[in-house]
Specification:
Low-confidence stretches: none
Number of strands: 8
Helix content: 40-55%
Shape: elongated
Strand order of the largest sheet: 6-5-2-1-8
Distance between the termini: 63 Å
Radius of gyration: 24 Å
Number of domains: 2
Order of helices and strands: HHHHHHHHEEEEEEEE
Length: about 200
């Protein structure tokens, strides 16, 4: 067992596997996705880790330079932490920004798995009008304390305020003492979303 777990092998595992898993986990938190089979994702993790090493090869070379670890142990530890964790998280954020930018959206598919995720992951304040399958209409305010589920979970939404609406779907007044409402997409025949162009 001692021959299997050596400092050299542990170091290779950390550099060529861990960053990939960190990047993939961060990506899944930023962009909803189906649950991964992590057992079969090892090749992907190694590939992403190798890209991380390639991008930071010059920096890793400085950290592993003659005597740097011995003379600057704290800086070496911080640098390796950056290589193993900070940089992969940064790559995931950069990838999300690039994939959702206006430029690349013309060339590649949006990474959001559903239109529901595309709309509500932006967390933009909005008025939401629910056309329930019962024939009723329900008005809601999607604001800072509201939330919506993400793929692959069942689509539902919490709006922090409920508003009375008329037969035409116009928002009339806030329901007194409202604490919000939970609405399932499957209970609706249509969901309309209206921008809020002013601060409340």
């Amino acid at each position: 067992m001692q021959d299997l777990v050596t400092p050299e092998r542990l170091g290779l595992f950390l550099v060529f596997v861990v960053p990939g898993f960190v990047a993939m986990k961060t990506h899944d938190l930023l962009i909803p996705a189906a649950a991964r089979n992590w057992g079969s994702s090892l090749v992907d993790a190694i590939a992403y880790s190798m890209l991380n090493v390639a991008a930071l090869f010059w920096f890793i070379g400085l950290l592993q330079g003659d005597g740097f670890q011995t003379h600057h142990p704290v800086l070496h530890a911080l640098g390796m932490f950056g290589v193993l964790f900070v940089a992969p998280i940064g790559w995931a954020f950069l990838a999300r920004y690039a994939l959702t930018s206006r430029l690349l959206r013309r060339l590649v598919l949006d990474p959001a798995p559903t239109a529901w995720d595309f709309v509500f992951s932006k967390r933009r304040p909005a008025w939401v009008l629910f056309h329930l399958k019962t024939g009723q209409k329900l008005g809601g305010l999607f604001w800072l304390n509201s939330t919506a589920s993400a793929f692959p979970n069942t689509a539902d939404i919490y709006v922090e305020e409920v508003w009375r609406v008329d037969s035409q779907g116009r928002f009339l007044e806030r329901i007194d003492q409202t604490a919000g409402a939970l609405v399932k997409r499957d209970d609706c025949s249509l969901i309309e979303i209206f921008r809020i162009d002013h601060e409340r």
